[in-house]
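Input chain follows. Return structure tokens only.
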Amino acid sequence: MQSNWLIEHWQEIETLGLYLFFAILFFFIGMAIYDVLKRGNVPVFGRVIVWLVLFLGCAGFIAKGVIKAFFSATGTGG
């Protein structure tokens, strides 16, 4: 009976794993950028721009997931 549940929800499990992978990837990208900015003595304005771009990339990815989940829940998306 439990294997049937796993088969029915395999797509949701894969999606959750993919989102977790991307979250970990964004974390490591952020750590690498932090290290490069620290070692390169980048001015404050440059640091702000770099972090803003990284944040907007993450926010866009999260917004896409939320919008997709909303449309799927209401039955208007595929």
